[in-house]
Amino acid sequence: MDFFINYWYIIMAVAALPAVAVLFVCAQLDKVREWLLWAVTEAEKNLGGGTGKLKLRQVYDLFVTRFPWLAKTVSFELFSSLVDDALDEMRDMLDKNEAVKAFVNREDM
């Protein structure tokens, strides 16, 4: 019991490390979500429609290159879900923004 009384601050710091790590990863995932919007838009521009698996592979390869440490902690299922969310946002932008549509379709504005 004396050990806990004497070293309570060290015990609390060690116990807090996982919480800090989770908060850090969550903050990084917000940055990844923003980056994914760009990545899926580039993949759509480069590969066009009907190439879903190729686009996913391209975006995943870019993700691993850009965020190597995060790629080790994020499961592929979570990554795929994040890509789906980014694709939904990109499609919404394509419907509402002619400049984005022209960019993806490589049209002159």
Summarize the entry for a quick read:
The protein is mostly helical and 109 residues long. Helix content is 84%, strand content 0%. It has helices at residues 2-6, 8-47, 52-66, 68-71, 76-96, 98-104.
How would you characterize the overall build of this protein?
The structure is a single chain. The protein is mostly helical and 109 residues long. It contains six helices and no strands. It is elongated and about 70 Å long. The mean pLDDT is 87.
Integer average pLDDT = 87
Q: How many individual β-strands? A: 0
Class by helix and strand content?
A: mainly alpha
| Helix proportion | over 70%
The main sheet comes to: none
Rg computed from alpha carbons, rounded to a whole number of angstroms: 20 Å
Distance between the termini: 73 Å
Strand content: under 5%
Number of helices: 6
> Any idea what the shape is?
elongated
Order of helices and strands: HHHHHH
Low-pLDDT runs: none
Helix and strand arrangement:
Layout: H1 2-6, H2 8-47, H3 52-66, H4 68-71, H5 76-96, H6 98-104
Features:
109 residues; mainly alpha; 6 helices; elongated
